[in-house]
Amino acid sequence: KAGVTQTPRYLIKTRGQQVTLSCSPISGHRSVSWYQQTPGQGLQFLFEYFSETQRNKGNFPGRFSGRQFSNSRSEMNVSTLELGDSALYLCASSVSRTLNTEAFFGQGTRLTVV
Amino acid sequence: GENVEQHPSTLSVQEGDSAVIKCTYSDSASNYFPWYKQELGKRPQLIIDIRSNVGEKKDQRIAVTLNKTAKHFSLHITETQPEDSAVYFCAASMNDYKLSFGAGTTVTVRA
User: Do A102 and B101 touch (CB under 8 A)?
Assistant: First the structure.
């Protein structure tokens, strides 16, 4: 069974630009969550999607948005990039929301804003 | 929201010794406590988890204990090996499927 796949693996963007990251969950998993990982702040929750609906949101500005498609694939968008957005963005998929089941992480997308 | 504190931030142990990482959480409604291991350049992977109706859980050399009254939980690794060197994250979650992570502990096992 293929794991969680994130594309691209690496990105370099300029301040002010926007970026879209993609996450394909494990087949059969319907919940997708996004996290930002930085050396200073650790792993911070961005949002969670289930059945194409955002179910939970962390404390990030509105520049961070996402969506989920009918096949459970998810995208995350960051507009008007700032230097502080440089981070490893991880997505995690879970089979359902009925229980706190294991979250499987992808390899992440390393975003560098210059 | 939930706040998880993790200590120590770094831990160096001699191969064969035990390692203990401690976490505290703020929200008594949290009921799920996973531990993730992240090796350098790799994705976080679940190594063990515990739910609030259980006080202790063990899996080979790894064990986790939970004290709901004190709102803290700990990871114990016995007979440490070089491959245990990694960053370990604790997390807490309520029934909202949002994981609140601790800041991480960098464990180095000296040969």
Answer: no
